[in-house]
Structure formats: structure tokens, C-alpha cells
């Protein structure tokens, strides 16, 4: 009985504190989210937001940097569910596959062109820049130009950036930064990447 009472008091306290925080958050604005860290869940979280936005019939623009050789479920879905031009992939593999820095830079620039088009088009409520962080850490794209384009996006447009790393520039600009930390990954125990789960 005492346990039940204690639980009730604690929940009441928590509710008061949560209600106060909700009341204090009265700024209505779009946000920049950075999903980083070495654990699994960054790209899939970004696509979770794609689903949310699409549920409200919001227009979503998606650009995938790096990815392209491995077909993925999200690519299959986007190619059939999104209007032409709203989903763009860099179309080269990982750098350790291509091993051609100049070709990678060209591909990165081509891909960035699509991203910056979306970042200046008010039709998009949400723009996903998947694995963008690597383009900055490899020095394939100019960080200042990238930050500026994100900053100058239409007022109502939110942006999700994923990828490991992501320097202080991105972190400072982002309103929300989450680090997905690996505790365990099946791959380390020899489990093969799985359709519908990993790609
Ligand atoms: P996901 O796309 O599943 O959300 P992610 O975006 O967080 O993963 P990435 O670094 O982009 O992770 O890696 C993409 C692929 O590599 C996915 O197939 C994912 O399962 C796998 N992966 C992610 N983290 C690890 C890890 N720590 N070890 C091995 N493979 C991983
Ligand atoms: Mg990813």
C-alpha cells in the first residue's frame, strides 16, 4: 500500500514537472537535427521522421550521400512513393570501394547540388541529408557553405543530418543532437546484415 502511495506521489511530481516544461516550450519553429554516433539507428531514425511527415502529407526531400551500391528498402520505398526528384542518391559506393578521391569529390558536389536545391525550396517541410557528415570530414564539401545553406533554408523547413562524427560547426547549428551509442551490434557476432533491418 505504501508502495502505491509513494508511486502516486512520485508520478504527481513528475507530471507537474513535465507539464511545466511543456508550457515553457512555446517557440514554434523548424529545427535542425543531427543524428550521430557509432551505433545502429541513425538512418532508420531519419526515415522514421520521413514516415511521420508523410503521414501529414508533408513533402519530404531526401538526399543520401555515400550510399548507392547496396540497394536498400528505403530506396525501393522512396522511388515508388515519392515524386520524381524528391529522392536522390550519390550513386557511388563507399570511399574504400571507389578509392578515387577526385571522382568522389565530383559525386559529392553533384549530390550537394540536389541538397541545396531542396534546402532553398519551400515546398519541402523536411529535408534528410543522410550520411552528410562524411562529406565534411573527408573535406569533399565546404563546411561553411553547407552550414550557410542549412541556416538559410525556408522558415518552416526542418533538416535531419545523419552520419558518424559531424564537427562542432554542425553541432552548434543543430537544435537537437543525438548520439547513438553502440552497446552491441549483431554484425560483431558474425550475423549478416539483414534485409528490412539493416538495409
Ligand atoms: P541504420 O541505417 O540501420 O539506421 P546507421 O545509419 O545508424 O544504421 P551507418 O553507420 O549508416 O548506421 O551504417 C549503415 C549500415 O551499417 C546498416 O546496415 C547498419 O546496420 C550497419 N551498422 C551500423 N552500425 C554498425 C556497427 N556498429 N557495426 C556494424 N554494422 C553497423
Ligand atoms: Mg546511416
Ordered list of secondary-structure elements with their pairings:
Blueprint: H1 2-24, E1 32-36, H2 42-55, E2 60-64, H3 73-81, E3 87-89, H4 95-98, H5 101-119, E4 126-130, H6 132-137, H7 143-151, E5 158-162, H8 168-173, E6 176-179
This protein binds adenosine-5'-triphosphate and magnesium ion.
Adenosine-5'-triphosphate binds at residues 38-44, 162, 164, 180, 182, 185, 187, 193, 198-199.
Could you characterize the architecture of this molecule?
The longest helix is centred in the N-terminal third of the chain and has 23 residues, at 2-24. 45% of the residues lie in helices and 14% in strands. It contains 8 helices and 6 strands, in the order αβαβαβααβααβαβ. It has a single domain (31-182), classed as 3-Layer(aba) Sandwich (Rossmann fold). The chain has a 6-stranded parallel β-sheet with strand order 3-2-4-5-1-6, with helices on both faces. It has 199 residues and is α/β, with parallel strands linked by helices. The chain has helices at residues 2-24, 42-55, 73-81, 95-98, 101-119, 132-137, 143-151, 168-173; strands spanning 32-36, 60-64, 87-89, 126-130, 158-162, 176-179. Residues 42-43, 131, 162 line the site of magnesium ion.
Amino acid at each position: 500500500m505504501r508502495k502505491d502511495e509513494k508511486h502516486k506521489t512520485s508520478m504527481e511530481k513528475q507530471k507537474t514537472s513535465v507539464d511545466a516544461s511543456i508550457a515553457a516550450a512555446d517557440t514554434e519553429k523548424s529545427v535542425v537535427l543531427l543524428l550521430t554516433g557509432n551505433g545502429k539507428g541513425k538512418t532508420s531514425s531519419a526515415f522514421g521522421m520521413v514516415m511521420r511527415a508523410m503521414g501529414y502529407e508533408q513533402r519530404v526531400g531526401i538526399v543520401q550521400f555515400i550510399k548507392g551500391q547496396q540497394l536498400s528498402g528505403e530506396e525501393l520505398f522512396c522511388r515508388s512513393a515519392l515524386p520524381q526528384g524528391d529522392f536522390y542518391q550519390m550513386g557511388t559506393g563507399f570511399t574504400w570501394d571507389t578509392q578515387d578521391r577526385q571522382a568522389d569529390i565530383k559525386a559529392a558536389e553533384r549530390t550537394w547540388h540536389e541538397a541545396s536545391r531542396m534546402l532553398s525550396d519551400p515546398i519541402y517541410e523536411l529535408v534528410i541529408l543522410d550520411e552528410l557528415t562524411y562529406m565534411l570530414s573527408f573535406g569533399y564539401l565546404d563546411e561553411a557553405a553547407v552550414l550557410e545553406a542549412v541556416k538559410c533554408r525556408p522558415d518552416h523547413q526542418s533538416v535531419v543530418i545523419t552520419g558518424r562524427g559531424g564537427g562542432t560547426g554542425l553541432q552548434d547549428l543543430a537544435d537537437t543532437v543525438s548520439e547513438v551509442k553502440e552497446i552491441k551490434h549483431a554484425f560483431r557476432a558474425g550475423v549478416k546484415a539483414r534485409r528490412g533491418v539493416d538495409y
